[in-house]
Amino acid sequence: MSQPSMDTIVNLAKTRGFVFPGSDIYGGLANSWDYGPLGVELKNNIKHEWWKRFVHGRIDMVGQDGAIIMNPKVWEASGHLENFTDPLVECKNCHERYRADQIDLTKPCAKCGKSETLTEPASFNMMFKTFMGPKEESASTVYLRPETAQAIFVDFPQVLMTSRKRIPFGIAQIGKAFRNEITPGNFIFRTREFEQMEIEYFVHPDDWKEKFEMWLKELHGWIDFCGIKKEWVHEYETPGSELAHYSERTVDLEFDFPFGKSELYGLAYRTDHDLKKHSEYSGRDLSYTDTVTGEKYIPHVIEPSLGVDRTLLAVMLSAYTEEEAPTADGGVDKRVVMKFPHALAPIKIAVLPLSKKPELRDVALPIVEKLSKKWNAEYDETQSIGRRYRRQDEIGTPYCVTVDFDSLNDHAVTVRDRDTMVQERIAIGELEDYFFKNLKS
Ligand code: GAP
């Protein structure tokens, strides 16, 4: 199937409660988005599954949760103060700003149309600055982290000591990152506040190539698990001129977004850049001694870095499906189905009494109460059953449980499968077992 347009996904996200424009009642705030009831479930499921897979699922990994605001020396040592920049040009006529590497500098200003008004490119540091404490002076300047990675490097000796891990091993972290992007846009693709899921995997310098390939494979496995369409994902070997200041090799996993092929994830070989710099600037020895060979060295790092928001966007674009479906009167209708993998679906089961009659409610409510102890289950008794099925399809709920008047006598319900639309009659007492068997984790 061809990809939905951005408008289709943005519209579905807004009308169904996945993602809304932020600060909307005040006219919004440029490129800020809030995750609604379904969006936060989807996002939490992505983060939870990532953690389950890469932290709990591997014996060579541990997790941590570092502070967003760190000692400013961290950013001096890491090179972000000097190098975390984008080339900025400004129109001298209308003062619109652009990223110099994203536009044709020989063309007129896209906003005011004037020619030859763009300034020479200047380096613009993308870190958000703020002040710690009541004094707004340079001594109290701090930064919101532009990547979660640095807390992992700074905490490396403590995690090493307390976790009893030996190299090769990795530390994972999920959290917010902030970048004062010159040109944010394309919905949640590029925002100034976003979330990352990062791993810093520490290796012996001789092993980096093998571990790089291992993580590349892991990333493809994760993409598959999320239901992100393989045919829309491409590897991009970043040329030397485009490498970040800390990287010796980076492979981006790009995705065919409706606005063009763009970075979904990055896999970088950060060498010993960060630990070496933090050793130098802090005066603390961040080297590692192999207990078997006695060799002492600064570990090298492979970094799989994933944006949560971009994952969510790629998952939604991949899950979106339009199909023909039969109507109650024997006709054919179009249905939109979000075919999320079960593990990511915001709601796993919807319990739908056929009507609002109290006797059906009395059967349906205890069912949803019981199921919601194990899975995120929803109760809905508004509108016709057909419309409620369509809504659950659109939000990607794998199963609907319908309580009808026969249920009062046979103590059974109809379970409808989102993807096949096949309906089965299941005894109420067997529902839990049914979902343990059929809901895929
Ligand atoms: N620690 C390495 C690092 O931060 P990056 O390529 O700059 O590398 C990693 O960012 C990932 O974070 C990207 O692949 C993308 O998924 C996500 N990301 C980066 N900037 C973003 C932004 N402005 N909005 C949303 N996601 C972003």
Largest sheet: 7 strands, mixed
Characterize the overall form.
Answer: globular
Strand order of the largest sheet: 3-9-10-16-13-12-11
Name given to the CATH homologous superfamily of the largest domain: Bira Bifunctional Protein, Domain 2
Helices and strands in order, then pairings?
Blueprint: H1 6-16, E1 19-21, E2 33-35, H2 37-56, E3 61-63, H3 73-78, H4 80-83, E4 85-90, E5 97-99, E6 122-125, E7 128-131, E8 141-144, H5 149-163, E9 169-178, E10 193-203, H6 208-225, E11 233-237, E12 249-257, E13 260-271, H7 273-282, E14 288-289, E15 296-297, E16 300-307, H8 308-319, E17 320-326, E18 332-338, E19 349-353, H9 358-371, E20 377-379, H10 385-394, E21 399-403, H11 407-410, E22 412-417, E23 423-427, H12 431-438
Parallel strand pairs: 3-9, 19-20, 19-21
Antiparallel strand pairs: 1-2, 4-5, 4-6, 7-8, 9-10, 10-16, 11-12, 12-13, 13-16, 14-15, 17-18, 21-22, 22-23
